[in-house]
């Protein structure tokens, strides 16, 4: 099936400017709610290039987010492929389901051809009994994206009283899969659960699709974050032995990317100032929640584990350390919604690798200055 330029957006469906016969707008699932983004408490941009500084300035200029309703859609005989890309029976690709790819001129996973001439190889096997809910989006394997993009969907649908017979998740394993299963069993205990492989198209008779609650770089629905926070604390937040320490250094040194090259000196420096090193991957989700709830100051390299700042108390302060080529406002935006203070230091980049994976060096003098401001 040829796709080519046959793309339809949620906005067009809502406005009625495009009306595929197999697509229906069922109404508002989460009413709009705006929020402000305060300027960061402390910023150090010394290592940013001229172009990077210009882009960062544009990002920082977006000081508010207008309210945006999140709508629920029903698509008949739709195909789900790749990382949650939805293709209607008419051949229209639902833009919002693959916008992270499309906006960068990248062909979504699971679709053949080139970006200019996309093609769906086949409609896929029949999947899902009754009403099927899609809970799969680009980057679904990332813990942070799951918390922000996907976890709110099930409690929101449950609160709206929507009947669900089947849930389509992305194909994950380990602790994240256990979290997904726990949420599904809590909100829709009788639903069939499918962990869909990215390369296997699924043909779904009645597909429910939730308009994205997070659209990079700067939109996250505050009520969706509340759904995630409340569900996480209720389902996972009771632990017998919470991690102790009100000053946390969130280390990525056991993860494959974005290492701090002078980590031994940096950790020793932080420990001398009352910080405890915390490796999130060694702890359960519940223990991570408790650690962030109890923290007053959090320092860490930019990464998924810092999404846990949504559980921080309003007095908390997060300092995010970034490579000088990795400008991503995800955590500034998240901290703004969560009501905590946010700071960021861009550090000396150590290589020619992908900016999102590059290692970097931390200037201890800059950290000392930050801590003098925090007190």
Helical amount: 25-40%
Main sheet summary: 8 strands, mixed
Q: Number of helical segments?
A: 11
Tell me, briefly, the overall form.
globular
Pfam family, one: Glyco_transf_61
GO molecular function, one term: glycosyltransferase activity
Protein name: Glycosyltransferase 61 catalytic domain-containing protein
Domain Glycosyltransferase 61 catalytic: 143-316
How is this structure best described in words?
The chain has 375 residues and is an alpha/beta fold. The chain folds into two domains: 7-29 and 68-226, no CATH class; 42-64 and 239-374, 3-Layer(aba) Sandwich (Rossmann fold), CATH 3.40.50. 28% of the residues lie in helices and 25% in strands. It has eleven helices and 21 strands. The protein has helices at 10-15, 50-60, 99-102, 143-150, 153-159, 174-187, 222-236, 263-271, 285-294, 330-338, 364-374; strands spanning 7-8, 23-30, 35-36, 42-44, 64-65, 70-81, 85-87, 93-94, 112-113, 118-119, 125-127, 132-135, 166-170, 192-196, 202-210, 247-250, 276-278, 297-301, 317-323, 341-349, 360-361. The strands form five sheets. Strands 2, 6, 7, 11, 12, 13, 14 and 15 form an eight-stranded mixed β-sheet that branches. Strand 19 (317-323), helix 10 and strand 20 (341-349) form a beta-alpha-beta unit. The protein is globular and about 65 Å long.
């Amino acid at each position: 099936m040829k796709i080519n330029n046959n793309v339809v957006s949620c906005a067009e469906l809502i406005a009625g400017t495009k009306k595929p016969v197999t697509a229906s707008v069922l109404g508002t699932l989460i009413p709009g709610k705006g929020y402000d983004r305060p300027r960061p408490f402390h910023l150090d941009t010394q290592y940013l290039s001229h172009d990077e500084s210009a882009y960062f300035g544009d990002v920082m200029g977006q000081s508010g987010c207008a309210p945006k309703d999140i709508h629920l859609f029903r698509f008949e005989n739709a195909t789900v492929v790749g990382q949650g890309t939805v293709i209607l029976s008419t051949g229209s690709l639902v833009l919002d389901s693959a916008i992270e790819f499309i906006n960068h001129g990248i062909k979504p996973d699971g679709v053949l051809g080139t970006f200019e001439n996309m093609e769906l190889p086949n409609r896929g096997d029949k999947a899902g009994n009754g009403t099927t809910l899609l809970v799969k989006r680009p980057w679904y394997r990332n813990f942070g994206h799951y918390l922000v993009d996907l976890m709110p969907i099930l409690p929101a649908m449950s609160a709206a009283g929507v009947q669900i017979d089947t849930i389509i998740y992305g194909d994950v394993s380990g602790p994240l899969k256990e979290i997904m299963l726990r949420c599904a069993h809590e909100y829709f205990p009788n639903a069939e659960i499918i962990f869909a492989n990215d390369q296997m198209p699924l043909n779904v008779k009645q597909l429910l699709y939730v308009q994205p609650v997070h659209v990079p770089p700067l939109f996250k629905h505050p009520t969706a974050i509340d759904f995630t926070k409340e569900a996480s604390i209720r389902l996972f937040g009771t632990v017998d032995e919470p991690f102790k320490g009100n000053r946390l250094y969130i280390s990525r040194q056991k993860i494959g990317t974005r290492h701090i090259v002078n980590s031994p000196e940096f950790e020793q420096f932080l420990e001398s100032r009352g910080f405890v090193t915390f490796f999130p991957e060694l702890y359960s989700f519940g223990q991570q929640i408790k650690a962030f709830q109890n923290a007053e100051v959090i320092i860490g390299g930019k990464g998924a584990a810092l999404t846990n700042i949504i559980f921080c108390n309003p007095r908390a302060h997060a300092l995010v350390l970034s490579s000088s080529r990795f400008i991503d406002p995800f955590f500034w935006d998240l901290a703004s919604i969560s009501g905590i203070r946010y700071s960021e230091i861009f550090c000396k980049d150590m290589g020619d690798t992908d900016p999102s994976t590059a290692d970097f060096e931390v200037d201890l003098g800059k950290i000392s200055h930050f801590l003098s401001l925090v007190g």
